[in-house]
Amino acid sequence: MSMPSMNVRHWTRGVRWVRWYLRELTGEAEYDRYCAHHRRRHPGAPLPSRREYEVLRTHHRENHPQSRCC
């Protein structure tokens, strides 16, 4: 394998990692996981929009608090 192709592979891997990290950090990946779960568990039910999901998630966290360190 030539040196330039190795550099491209490393760069591509780095970009993928940064994309994954940012999606996890912003919560975008959480919504995608929720949609996949919702499609499996409730195949005929409509999916909530991202905004509706955020409202549902906020209400759930407010009504079911978990102990936190801070």
Features:
70 residues, mainly alpha, elongated, single chain, Sel_put
Task: Describe the protein.
The protein is elongated and about 55 Å long. It is built from three helices and no strands. By secondary structure, the chain is mostly helical. The longest helix has 24 residues, at 3-26. It is 74% helix and 0% strand.
In short:
This protein has 70 residues and is an all-alpha fold.
Helical amount among residues, as a percent range?
over 70%
Low-pLDDT windows of residues:
none
Q: Count up the helices.
A: 3
Give the SSE string: HHH
SSE blueprint:
Blueprint: H1 3-26, H2 28-41, H3 50-63
